[in-house]
Amino acid sequence: MVAKNPDERYQSMSEPIVDLDSYRDKNQLRVEKGWQHGLLDRVPKKSNQGGSDSTEIFSTVLQEKTDRESHSDNLDPSVERTASKTNTRIRLYRGCLILVGFAVLWWSFSNREVFLGLLGPSIQTPQEVAEKTSTTTASQETGVIEDASRAAALRVLELGGSIEIIVQGQPQIIQNLANLPDRDFQIREIILHENEVVRDEDLKFFSALQYLEFLDLYDTDVTDIGLENLKHLPALLKMDLFQTLVSDPGLEQVGRFTTLQSLSLQNTAVSNVGLKHLARLSNLNSLNLGNIELDDSGLVHLKSLTGLQWLQLSFTNVTDTGMRELQGLESLRELYVNRHFPDGLSLEPFQARITVHVNSTPLQGQTSDDFPDIS
Fold first, then answer.
1. In-domain check, residue 234
2. Does residue 110 lie in a domain region?
3. How far is CA 367 from CA 165, 233, 335, 346, in A?
4. Is 275 exposed, middle or buried (CB count within 10 Å of its CB: 0-12, 13-18, 19+)?
5. CB-based burial of residue 336 (10 Å sphere; 0-12 exposed, 13-18 middle, 19+ buried)?
6. Rounded Cα–Cα distance for residues 282 and 259 (Å)
7. In the sheet where 355-358 sits, what is the strand order?
8. 328: nearest Cα among 346, 294, 354, 367
9. pLDDT value of residue 31
10. By C-alpha distance, which of 293, 296, 347, 294 is closest to 321?
11. How many Cα neighbours within 13 Å face the side chain of 334?
């Protein structure tokens, strides 16, 4: 009615009446459908004062819905096809990713070691962890041995003794601190011969020397308590306790050194009772029991030492009766006995196959240089 172009305006009043009637009939039909479906019940009713009634509100809402549906119906078909293709591609890519993920999981379980290697050196298999732990433990044990060797060497040299060490497979005798090498070494021999300052607590430094073969404590003040400090000497072959303060209780610890081949107990407080601990020394081939409280009853404990080759029994109370206990020692080659035996002692069974010495004088044959005189 107010269009700028007069040709676009209503030309008569009947034309707008027709349009208005059409609009009214159309909205009336929508309202009736709304009542049928209960839609107007959901529309809040307003007061007629200053506002529209429920029918007008519902008509407005329904008109907006119709407009949206009309707009959707008028979309370009090409746009719909493009959207459909895009959704299809997205679903396809998503399916491919899921398949690739399953393939990677299957390969990682089938080739676990390779997969862990690709992740980096910090990821290790249980086998690698065990091997690394074993290597680390071995390294730590080596470090402990080396530290124990150096600590023991320093202690012996401070006491005025000497040591024989192995450095890169070569033996060296060390008598002072200045000659102690900086590189790692193992102690093979400890010499504290006639050392007046050695005490029991000093032997604690020797308890972890796994390569120690010879421990010389000749004429020192070491007691049974000191021997208890020698807990683990797995390679010990020779021990000299000549004229120490060791007694029967100390032999219990000595009996644990089953690798011993040579042992001197001369001039100690050892007696028949303590010799029972020596029965376990099956590798013993040289034994010095001179000038101890020994009689025939103590020789019974020596019957199991079948490898014995050199035996010192001088200045003991052994008689002819006790000597018969030794006839079963077939490996025995040299025997030292008293100069003055009780009447009736017969050495003929021994003289037939061994050299018998009365103190240091051989009764038959020559003294063999192959057997050590550790008295």
1. yes
2. no
3. 32, 32, 10, 20
4. buried
5. buried
6. 8
7. 170-174, 162-167, 186-191, 214-216, 238-240, 262-264, 286-288, 310-312, 334-337, 355-358, 361-362
8. 354
9. 52
10. 296
11. 22
**Two structure tokens written together for 319:** 């008689």
319-359: pLDDT as tens digits: 878 888 888 888 999 988 875 555 445 566 666 677 878 76
Residue-range definition of the domain harbouring residue 280: 133-362
Distance of alpha carbon 356 from alpha carbon 327, whole angstroms: 13
- pTM for the whole structure: 0.59
More confident residue, 328 or 74: 328
Number of domains in the chain: 2
Amino acid at 359: N
Element (H, E) at 262: strand 262-264
Query: How much is the pLDDT for 374?
Result: 40
Question: Per the domain annotation, does 339 fall within a domain?
Answer: yes
- Tokens read off for 120: 């980096």
Q: Provide φ and ψ at 324, rounded to 5°.
A: -65, -25
The neighbouring-strand residues paired with 186 are 166
As a 3-state breakdown, the chain gives helix, strand, coil percent values, each rounded to 5, of 45, 15, 40
- Residue 296 belongs to domain with CATH number: 3.80.10.10
Establish if 139 belongs to a structural domain: yes
The per-residue pLDDT for 172 is 96
The per-residue pLDDT for range 76-125, each reduced to its tens digit, is 566 666 767 778 888 888 888 898 888 888 877 777 665 555 555 444 55
User: 3-class SS at 151?
Assistant: helix
Tokens representing 287 are 């034994």
Q: Are 221 and 192 in contact (CB under 8 A)?
A: no
Rounded Cα distance between 148 and 165, Å, is 13
User: Would you state the structure tokens that stand for residue 62, as one six-digit string?
Assistant: 């329904």
The CA-atom distances, in angstroms, between 201 and each of 77, 186, 227, 229 are 102, 21, 10, 8
